[in-house]
Design brief:
alpha+beta, two-stranded antiparallel ribbon, 9 strands, Peptide Deformylase
Length: about 220
């Protein structure tokens, strides 16, 4: 998911005053980039129209492997290079049910982590609302459109070692969890738009794509990658 506010290319400020990693609060300072990124390599981000983005991903059945750890590391670094707040495995061409995130919520809490084989809890709290807000996607570079989503969600899954996870999100972080889980079912946010809005998003992508790639190249260089 692209970190989108008014400007689809500019992420919301990352707030380090309070941080939750894998759903748990962290004591003391936390680095601007998750530690996994230091071990990662940058991978090419797939784009709308590529088959891997439009089919359901496979369940992860082997946990604790070097390959799975490397994929998590690479997803983190690739997400940061692309200035995103979430990235799913099929967005780097790997059709597995896994995504990473580094995303703020409306309380200024920064949520960092990964989740394997996530399933969204469909039970709705009485206070949950449907919110229209601008949404973008690293696989639809440069585009941003308004998408209605619930402002609260719970994702249940596992970490890369097979330990159970329950990740609760509100506001923008809830949107991120829903957006990335959609990817694992082979859906992009474009699929939630009217035909007219989808065409508008694709026009935005055509107009801004090269500028987005130039920014990613610059960010990679700044990170020494």
């Amino acid at each position: 998911m692209t970190a989108v506010s008014v400007d689809p290319g500019r992420p919301p400020a990352r707030v380090d005053r309070r941080v939750r990693v894998q759903g748990e609060p962290v004591d003391g300072p936390y680095p601007p980039l998750a530690p996994e990124a230091r071990r990662g390599s940058v991978r090419r981000i797939t784009e709308v129209g590529e088959e891997v983005l439009h089919r359901p991903c496979r369940e992860v059945t082997e946990f604790g492997t070097p390959e799975l750890a490397a994929l998590v590391d690479d997803l983190f670094l690739t997400m940061y290079v692309a200035e995103g707040c979430g990235l799913a495995a099929n967005q780097v061409g790997v059709g597995l049910r896994l995504f990473v995130y580094d995303c703020p919520d409306e309380h200024g809490v920064r949520h960092v982590g990964h989740i394997v084989n996530p399933v969204l809890d469909q039970s709705a709290p009485a206070t949950r609302r449907l919110i229209d807000d601008t949404e973008g996607c690293l696989s639809v570079p440069g585009a941003g459109m308004s998408v209605p989503r619930p402002d609260h969600t719970v994702a249940r899954g596992y970490d890369q070692h097979g330990n159970p996870l329950v990740i609760e999100g509100t506001d923008y972080f809830a949107r991120c969890l829903q957006h990335e889980t959609d990817h694992l079912y082979g859906h992009l946010y474009l699929d939630r738009l009217s035909k007219r809005d989808r065409k508008d998003a694709l026009r935005q992508m055509a107009d801004r794509r090269e500028a987005v790639f130039a920014r990613r190249t610059k960010t990679a260089a700044e990170l020494g990658r």
